[in-house]
Amino acid sequence: LKNRFAPGGLILLYHRVAEVPSDPSELCVKPRHFTEHLEVLKKHSYPVPLQQLVQTVRDGKSLNKSVAITFDDGYADNLYNAKPLLEQHNIPATVFVSTGYLEHERESWWDELERLLLQPGTLPKTLCLGINGNTYKWDLGEAAYYSEDAYQRHCNWTWCTPKEADPSPRQSLYRTLYQLLRPLLPEERQKLMDQIVTWSGAQSGSRSTHHFLSPKEVYALQQNSLLEVGAHTVNHPFLSTQPAAQQHYELHHSKTRLEEIIERPVNSFAYPHGDYTAQTAAFAREVGFVCACSIIPSKVRRNVDSFQLPRVQVKDWDGEEFARQLSRWFYG
Q1: Which residue of 109, 169, 202, 306 lies most exposed, with the fewest beta carbons within 10 A?
Q2: Reduced to 3 states, what is the DSSP secondary structure of residue 271?
Q3: What angle do CA 61, 273, 112 make, to 5 degrees?
């Protein structure tokens, strides 16, 4: 009864609106599916800016199926693919930008790992790395050569696939390295990625499909009242693993850098990986954010903490499946 008559609100978590051949982290929603999502939202909910939803929470008013759209990381396709569709449907959104990638000529480490390991080509058979005082060694065997046919068969693989179902040692190595590298400090992780690039014999760089926003593009992103720019730290770390001073730096510096670029206050923040502590949330208040988003998969209710806002992650569903998911989130 509570769900039926007081369905609450939702904050949707997207990353990218793009169509790429391989997406092991499941970050992309195809533009045609995103269009269908927006049509469903206009029909079955009330799309609102994130700050309006937060103010409704603070005022103790009914959220009544209010929905706020958010994007994490700051991929360039947020500007070139998502923004035109949002404008076409007159639906607002917030884009959380990691400032350390703004002038980064390389891809994110997770995209670079995919490019090195899961694209067709030949790699050395053996990889050795020292991580956190431990020495790791992997043998690719016959999978050192990865044919175009094998790539086409396996390009829909994601790291959420059960480990025992990995189609080749390439996917198993990607899974293992992703899990080992993800919690490391940014500097340490980058050194290891440099070693992997050297081992692979590939060039560092960025595919045109995997660019992040530049400062000029961030400015262009918010050149109307429909899209808000929010902060997502500098280096996209696991904040709970960082010393207090580094956590404060990640929040404060990302906020001030974005404010320099867009020439207006940055009020919203999103914890990378949804990872934070009570101290992190306190820092978010201290540096001047109005709210902060987690990845707790839940509805937004009137008594929610504005610095622990829940979000539900959206996948590359067609409109029909998205409508089913929306109904489950509201009424399930």
Answers
A1: 202
A2: coil
A3: 140
pLDDT tens for residues 179-235? 999 988 888 999 999 999 999 999 877 899 999 999 999 999 998 879 999 999 999
Q: Write 180-189 long-range contacts (CB < 8 A, 24+).
A: 180/131, 180/136, 181/109, 181/113, 181/131, 182/110, 182/238, 182/273, 183/238, 183/241, 184/131, 184/132, 185/237, 185/241, 185/242, 186/100, 186/235, 186/236, 186/237, 189/109
In angstroms, the Cα distances linking 290 to 52, 58, 78, 86 are 11, 11, 23, 24
Q: Which two tokens stand for residue 332?
A: 């399930």
**With the C-alpha atoms ordered 75, 81, 82, 87, is the resulting torsion angle positive or negative?**
positive
DSSP letters, 126-158, are EEEEEETTEEEEEE-GGGGEE-HHHHHHHTT--
Q: What is the DSSP letter of 25?
A: T
CA–CA distance, 306 with 184 (Å, rounded to integer): 28
Q: Kindly give the interhelix angle for 169-181 and 186-200, rounded to the nearest 10 degrees.
A: 160
The span from the CA of 303 to the CA of 58, in Å, is: 8
Tokens of 131: 């991580």
The amino acid at residue 187 is E
Q: Using the CB atoms, write b or e for 158-173: b if 16+ within 10 Å.
A: ebeeeeeebebbbbbb
Do 276 and 240 contact (CB within 8 A), yes or no? yes
Instruction: Tell me how far apart the alpha carbons of residues 17 and 303 are, in angstroms, rounded to a whole number.
Output: 32
Q: What does the alpha-carbon distance between residue 254 and residue 233 come to, in Å, rounded to a whole number?
A: 5
Amino acid at 275: D
Q: What is the pLDDT of residues 257-272, one digit of tens each?
A: 999 999 999 999 999 9
